[in-house]
């Protein structure tokens, strides 16, 4: 007996094997093109970030070397020159405000007392931090200057504990202890040690720590979102009001006249323009880098930038080093980088637990208390999170 054909055939309900499914050539080509475009986009992004990192590190090292050259040679007026840097930063930020698209920078209006408080504290921290740091370059070598400045995480940690009772994790305590040992060894055994330069540079580190912690304390839980160019617009002019009388009181105006007679007016003006350009472009490129990545990741590069500045200084300036001082420098740089790494891990872990609003508030205060600062830009805002 013959069964009907439908009863002998079971309908196939599973999808056909991919290898048996006909694929249109245009669909396959579009898929491959999308993958290739995505890979190329990721590659270009990585290249751009790496290039910006090289530029930021180069500007950081170049700015330090340039300042050391100027302040110990043709123009021994560090406070006056620092004031001119502020002028250039203000002018650059003002022009950027006028021409940049809103996606890159939109000026933050001053609408709260917390914002005014922060803006008024920034010039004080800047004068104590960068003003004294630049002044110290007249008396100490660039290598020792950078080594002493690398002590800042320790100063900030101690100050934060005394003022706010803020404690550090065990890994960070270990790296901070190693940092103390490395800095003490490197500074105390250096043939180029200068006590006056050490005191002035140490004062700048203390000023940086006090300014950062006091700003964080006074801000409390108020979320004040200031862009770096907001700071350049609002805080540079008050800084100039403080720096110029200080410069005059130190007799730097007479030094400037002597430098013009000795070097020539064009040379001095050129040095001032070059320094001001360094100051603003460093802020600009660092802002772009942070917008593409994060201030957390930028903070990790602090050890690299400091180490490069120290290494470069030995090739440019007549400096001496003993075996113990070299060992101290190496220990300090490793500890500094390790502290930055553990800080990054803690911040990323904390942000993963918080809501969006809490992230903004925690980031603002964390940036301040971890002291992710560097040169002109860092003295202005503690570091930025875009």
What would you report as the Rg, rounded to the nearest angstrom?
Answer: 27 Å
Low-pLDDT windows of residues: 1-21, 368-386
Compute the average pLDDT: 78
Reported for the largest beta sheet, the result is:
none
Hey, roughly how much beta strand do the residues contain? Answer: under 5%
SSE string, helices as H and strands as E: HHHHHHHHHHHHHHHHH
Count the helices. How many?
17
Shape: globular
As an assembly, this protein is: single chain
Which bin fits the share of residues in helices?
A: over 70%
Structural category is mainly alpha
Distance between the termini: 81 Å
Work out the number of β strands: 0
Keyword list:
disordered N terminus, 386 residues, mainly alpha, single chain, globular, 17 helices
Folded structure, characterized:
The chain has helices spanning 5-8, 25-71, 78-99, 113-136, 142-149, 152-164, 170-188, 195-219, 228-234, 236-249, 252-263, 265-292, 295-300, 302-316, 323-353, 356-370, 375-381. It is globular and about 60 Å long. Helices cover 77% and strands 0% of the residues.
């Amino acid at each position: 007996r013959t069964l009907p054909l439908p009863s002998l055939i079971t309908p196939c309900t599973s999808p056909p094997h991919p290898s048996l499914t006909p694929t249109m050539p245009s669909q396959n080509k579009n898929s491959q093109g999308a993958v290739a475009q995505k890979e190329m986009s990721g590659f270009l992004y990585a290249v751009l970030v790496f290039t910006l990192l090289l530029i930021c590190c180069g500007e950081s090292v170049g700015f330090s070397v340039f300042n050391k050259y100027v302040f110990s040679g043709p123009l021994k007026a560090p406070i006056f020159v620092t004031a001119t840097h502020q002028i250039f930063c203000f002018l650059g930020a003002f022009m950027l405000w006028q021409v940049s698209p809103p996606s890159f920078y939109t000026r933050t209006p001053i609408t709260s007392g917390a914002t005014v408080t922060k803006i008024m504290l920034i010039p004080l921290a800047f004068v104590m931090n960068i003003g004294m740091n630049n002044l110290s370059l007249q008396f100490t070598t660039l290598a020792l200057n950078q080594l002493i400045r690398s002590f800042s995480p320790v100063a900030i940690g101690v100050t934060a504990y005394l003022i706010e009772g803020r404690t550090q994790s065990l890994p960070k305590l270990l790296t901070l202890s190693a940092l103390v040992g490395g800095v003490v060894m490197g500074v105390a055994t250096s043939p180029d040690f200068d006590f006056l330069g050490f005191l002035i540079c140490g004062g700048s580190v203390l000023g940086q720590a006090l300014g950062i912690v006091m700003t964080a304390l006074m801000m409390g839980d108020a979320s004040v979102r200031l862009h770096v160019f907001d700071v350049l617009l609002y805080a540079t002019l008050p800084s100039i009001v403080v720096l110029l009388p200080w410069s005059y009181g130190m007799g730097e105006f007479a030094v400037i006249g002597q430098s013009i007679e000795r070097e020539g007016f064009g040379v001095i003006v050129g040095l001032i323009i070059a320094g001001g350009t360094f100051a603003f472009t460093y802020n600009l490129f660092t802002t772009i880098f942070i917008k593409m990545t994060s201030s957390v990741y930028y903070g990790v590069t602090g050890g690299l930038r400091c180490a490069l500045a120290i290494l470069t200084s030995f090739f440019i300036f007549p400096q001496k080093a003993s075996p113990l001082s070299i060992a101290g420098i190496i220990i300090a740089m490793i500890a500094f980088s390790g502290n930055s790494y553990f800080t990054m891990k803690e911040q990323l872990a904390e942000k993963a637990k918080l809501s969006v609003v809490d992230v903004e508030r925690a980031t603002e205060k964390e940036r301040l208390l971890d002291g992710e600062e560097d040169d002109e830009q860092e003295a202005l805002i503690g570091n930025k999170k875009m």
